[in-house]
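Example S7 (structure tokens).
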């Protein structure tokens, strides 16, 4: 058995994952997130650094009636170890899940002797355990003092990290590399390579109400304007960007011309240029909708995670992970994906990042989510070896 693997306790890792999975941490469950943050603060206190909980940044959202409101979020956990070291890296994860407190998926069950089904076991409470135990194993190595690192576990990754984006950028600054603990892209351990970007928009449309029978011509139908906007948005799709109109809210009684609508949609640009071109086109599209339907429009949102390209520096980090995997008998591969995560934000800061260093599993964001339990120790050993190589200047 590899010496690094020998310092890792699989049973302790599994116990932590199961305890953390039992805490509901849907992004809007502030009480659950507070409980989880306290549990993580206690767990990460074994590392030789400072542990603090950081307040979320203010985030504004749009209600169904078109008004803006402050959207609360949980606190983020930050661990700082040897901040004065010459070589420093960033490790990130998230404590929130997509399952709110009233979701029926709240419990764990064994699918077989090696496969655990449960909320967040793969995405990404298993990943947090991998991160922690990799760092514990690294700290037991003779050269650990050569490397400093920051750990960020945020509370809002599943909704775009709007309350933690500035903190991610702050912690990424000056780092030579970053590792993020999303689950592997495939159950065999394949990593995510390049990623597209994402943006979320809300468009509020204000028309004029009128009686649908007596004087409909005096009304200005916000729902019709929104429907026209939906079709025009879809017409902007190219191979470089997809557009998903996701939700239309508004209207009232059938005999009233609706004077209000809110359209929510998501875009997935493959390049920074495609996202910028869409944003410009949207401004002109809204002017056309206003003129065609005699309504007012107001936009909210934009690109929240830019596309993640893999440059030469990032590719060296991928190659390092693959080489460390080979030393452990793990065949590390990668593929591009349309999904997004905090790795997009880190890459936008110019820091090389591999963002699927977490567990092997699958069916994330569904009640079928599962963790392949042996991957806890397997991936922790991989990370410990990568971190050790980074401490020795492997990217220099």
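Recovered sequence:
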């Amino acid at each position: 058995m590899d010496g690094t693997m020998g310092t890792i306790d699989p049973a302790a890792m599994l116990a932590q994952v199961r305890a953390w999975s039992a805490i509901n941490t849907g992004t809007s469950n502030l009480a659950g997130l507070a409980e989880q943050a306290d549990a993580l603060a206690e767990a990460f206190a074994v590392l030789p650094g400072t542990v603090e909980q950081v307040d979320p940044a203010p985030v504004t959202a749009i209600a169904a009636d078109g008004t803006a409101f402050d959207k609360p979020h949980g606190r983020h956990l930050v661990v700082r170890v040897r901040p004065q070291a010459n070589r420093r890296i960033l490790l990130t994860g998230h404590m929130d899940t997509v399952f709110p407190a009233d979701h029926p998926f709240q419990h764990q069950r064994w699918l077989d002797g090696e496969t655990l089904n449960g909320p967040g076991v793969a995405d990404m409470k298993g990943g947090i355990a991998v991160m922690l135990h990799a760092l514990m194993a690294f700290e037991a190595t003779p050269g650990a003092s050569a490397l400093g690192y920051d750990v960020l576990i945020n509370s809002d990754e599943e909704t775009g990290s709007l309350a933690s984006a500035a903190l991610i950028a702050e912690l990424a600054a000056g780092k030579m590399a970053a590792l993020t603990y999303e689950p592997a892209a495939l159950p065999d351990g394949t990593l995510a390579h390049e990623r597209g970007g994402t943006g979320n928009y809300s468009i509020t449309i204000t028309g004029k109400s009128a009686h649908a029978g007596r004087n409909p011509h005096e009304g200005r139908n916000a729902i019709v304007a929104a429907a026209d906007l939906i079709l025009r948005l879809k017409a902007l799709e190219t191979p470089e960007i997809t557009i998903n109109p996701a939700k239309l809210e508004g209207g009232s009684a059938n005999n009233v011309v609706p004077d209000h609508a809110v359209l929510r949609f998501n875009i997935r640009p493959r390049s920074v240029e495609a996202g910028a071109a869409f944003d410009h086109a949207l401004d002109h599209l809204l002017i056309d909708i206003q003129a065609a339907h005699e309504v007012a429009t107001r936009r909210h949102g934009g690109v929240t995670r830019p596309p993640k390209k893999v440059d030469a520096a990032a590719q060296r980090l991928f190659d390092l992970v693959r080489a460390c995997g080979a030393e452990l008998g793990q065949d590390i591969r990668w593929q591009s994906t349309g999904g997004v995560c905090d790795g997009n934000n880190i890459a936008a800061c110019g820091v090389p990042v591999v963002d699927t260093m977490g567990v092997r599993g699958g069916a994330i964001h569904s009640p079928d989510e599962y963790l392949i339990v042996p991957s806890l120790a397997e991936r922790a050993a991989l990370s410990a070896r990568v971190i050790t190589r980074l401490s020795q200047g492997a990217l220099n």
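Notes on this example. The longest helix spans residues 272-293.
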